Amino acid sequence: MSEMVFTAVFIASSQKISGVLLSVTLRAASTGDALYQAERELMEHGYYNIEHLSVCIAEDDSFLGIKIIDNY
């Protein structure tokens, strides 16, 4: 299965702030894999009480610097 680019959105807390809205964009094989990878990355950066809000296939978003490029 080829990888796709997903955006996962969470609410989480850290030592400095609680209830922050976080968006993670990453390559993954499935939505479940994207959620797992994103949540693991947040935990590695000190976030806890992580609540999943959504996960979707990423779209171009120049404001966030996301540009989907398919090379065939």
Automatic annotation (TrEMBL):
It comes from the Bacteria. This is Uncharacterized protein.
